[in-house]
């Protein structure tokens, strides 16, 4: 079923996020420029050693991330409406690129906070003014051993975009190019989509469920080699971060 065939009451309304693509693009541009003004995180570099500076930094980072998340959610949901539309895949890519830029500009954060002694971190964890960030401090305290230098953390931040390519490829393969067959159900012959497969598995007689199962996974058998490569790409991503940070295994990480 094409999206144009779906009744309006069954479509999500994204106007609470952005009223139009033009408003989205304007906010993206403004947020990018704000990294040199309102959200100039570099001015905090070398200062994350006292309560005031840390709170100021966290609040600015939280504000920026909140605006970025609104941009990402709009882009991702528009992309999910029809993954064949390249425009919204581009929108998602732009938000992820901005997130990577944020990571590189704040690469000093974790090394500086990890350099604080355990007693200071424990005081921050117990401080009511820091209550919104106590989990962050707990994670920093627990992961001190695996935190790298600022330069190395920046390189890891830069690696996030290219290392997700295998996952992006799987999404396109699974949602756009998977050769799903047709099945007769509910009195008509129709494509066996992911959604229809779930409906059949939860509502149809056993014979129909078995038929749907065999047809559904026959499509995956046709792309098994490519599927294995995309999966291996995800495995290699985990192995890269595990090795880079010095964990004993991916499970420990």
Overview of the structural elements:
With 253 residues, this protein is mainly alpha-helical. It is built from eleven helices and two strands. It has helices at residues 21-34, 51-81, 86-105, 109-114, 118-126, 134-142, 150-163, 165-177, 194-203, 206-222, 224-245; strands at residues 182-185, 188-191. It has a two-stranded antiparallel sheet with strand order 1-2. A hairpin with a 2-residue loop joins strand 1 and strand 2 (188-191). Helix 1 (21-34) packs antiparallel against helix 2, helix 5 runs antiparallel to helix 6 (134-142) and helix 9 (194-203) packs antiparallel against helix 10 (206-222).
Short structural summary:
With 253 residues, this protein is mainly α. It is 65% helix and 3% strand.
Feature tags:
253 residues; mainly alpha; two-stranded antiparallel sheet; 11 helices; globular
Global mean pLDDT: 93
Tell me roughly what share of residues is in helical segments: 55-70%
The helix tally amounts to 11
Structural class: mainly alpha
**Distance between the ends:** 42 Å
Strand content: under 5%
Q: Rough shape?
A: globular
Task: Determine Rg (CA atoms, Å).
Answer: 23 Å
Biggest sheet architecture: 2 strands, antiparallel
Describe how the helices and strands are arranged.
Blueprint: H1 21-34, H2 51-81, H3 86-105, H4 109-114, H5 118-126, H6 134-142, H7 150-163, H8 165-177, E1 182-185, E2 188-191, H9 194-203, H10 206-222, H11 224-245
Antiparallel strand pairs: 1-2
Helix pairs in contact: 1-2, 2-3, 3-7, 5-6, 8-11, 9-10
């Amino acid at each position: 079923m094409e999206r144009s065939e779906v009744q309006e009451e069954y479509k999500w309304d994204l106007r609470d996020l952005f009223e139009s693509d033009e408003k989205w693009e304007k906010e993206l541009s403004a947020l990018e420029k704000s990294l040199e003004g309102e959200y100039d995180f570099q001015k905090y570099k070398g200062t994350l050693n006292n309560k005031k500076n840390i709170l100021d930094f966290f609040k600015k980072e939280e504000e920026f991330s909140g605006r970025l998340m609104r941009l990402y959610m709009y882009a991702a949901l528009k992309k999910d409406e029809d993954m064949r539309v390249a425009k919204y895949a581009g929108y998602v890519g732009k938000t992820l690129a901005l997130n990577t830029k944020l990571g590189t500009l704040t690469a000093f954060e974790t090394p500086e906070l990890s350099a604080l002694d355990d007693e200071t971190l424990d005081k921050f964890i117990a401080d009511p003014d820091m209550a919104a960030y106590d989990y962050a401090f707990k994670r920093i305290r627990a992961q001190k051993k695996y935190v790298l230098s600022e330069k190395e953390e920046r390189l890891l931040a830069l690696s996030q975009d290219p290392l997700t390519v295998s996952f992006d490829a799987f999404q396109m393969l699974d949602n756009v190019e998977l050769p799903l067959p047709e099945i007769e159900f509910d009195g008509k012959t129709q494509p066996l989509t992911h959604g229809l497969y779930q409906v059949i598995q939860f509502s149809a007689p056993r014979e129909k469920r078995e038929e749907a199962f065999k047809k559904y996974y026959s499509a995956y058998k046709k792309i098994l080699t490519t599927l294995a490569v995309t999966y291996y790409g995800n495995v290699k991503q985990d192995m890269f971060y595990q090795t880079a940070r010095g964990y004993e295994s991916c499970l420990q990480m």
